[in-house]
Specification:
By secondary structure, this protein is α+β, with helices and mostly antiparallel strands. The chain has 3 helices and 5 strands; from the N terminus they run H-H-E-E-H-E-E-E. A 3-stranded antiparallel sheet has the order 2-1-3. Strands 4-5 form a two-stranded antiparallel ribbon.
Length: 127
């Protein structure tokens, strides 16, 4: 049986994830076997225990899922381990002379998030 990916994170990183995202991840895990016949090879977004968007394009699914709220769990059904996501974030105060002035989301702060997606090479395809 496929296992959730956040289970592999160190505890200090896992606690940073939104509880709603973790709940949606658990919902996907419970729904996964029933999704395989209809959605295998497609991206699906799961929120509150149901599929809210599905299709062959990750970007389209993300766009449609965003209308339902900020924390859906999105996976490539039947090929969950083939997708590798790398998320990097950076946050700092504009005024470096006053580092204590940084408050995430405040007008004097800058927050940057970069998300990369690539397909994991299959056995035999690796150089």
């Amino acid at each position: 049986m496929w296992q959730i990916q956040t289970a592999n994170l160190p505890q200090e990183q896992r606690h940073r994830l939104d509880p709603e995202f973790l709940a949606n991840e658990q919902s996907y895990l419970q729904l996964r076997d029933s999704l395989l016949p209809q959605y295998r090879g497609q991206w699906v977004a799961v929120q509150s225990g149901k599929v809210i968007a599905a299709g062959p394009s990750l970007m389209d699914v993300m766009d449609r899922a965003s209308a339902f709220g900020p924390h859906p769990f999105i996976a490539l059904v039947g090929a969950e381990d083939a997708a590798v996501f790398r998320v990097r974030g950076l946050a700092f105060a504009y005024d470096q002379a006053k580092p204590s002035a940084f408050k995430p989301g405040s007008p004097s702060s800058y927050e940057w998030l970069d998300v990369e997606w690539r397909e994991r090479p299959r056995k035999g395809d690796e150089p």
